[in-house]
Amino acid sequence: MAQHITIRKADGTWSVRAGGAVLGESSNALELIEGSYPPVIYFPRADIAMAFLDTSEKSTHCPHKGDASYFSVVTKSTTLKDVVWSYETPSEAVSRIKDHLAFFTDGDVTVEQI
Predict the structure, then answer these.
(1) Three-state SS at 97
(2) For the DUF427 domain, which residue ranges apply (predicted)?
(3) Tally of domains in the chain
(4) Residue 1, pLDDT above cutoff 50
């Protein structure tokens, strides 16, 4: 693993909400810490209501984690564009985040320990 990236099981149960909808809760979330960036919670896909997510055309590349795919959250009242990402085929060093989703927490999306 890249020396500046740490992945561990996140303590407790975590929830994610967007646009007034609860997208999921998990006691199997992972916490990824990369350098001086704030920790990011990665939720197992199995714990997220995937019906709220639409695949996006956006993608980005991280030299340590690989290529990220993005999703938009679609609720009754709004579409939040490109607020979810996933490493479909992460680099071997961070393979634990495969089949997990992370969320931009920008006021319309909240991730919190419950």
Answers:
(1) helix
(2) 15-105
(3) 1
(4) no
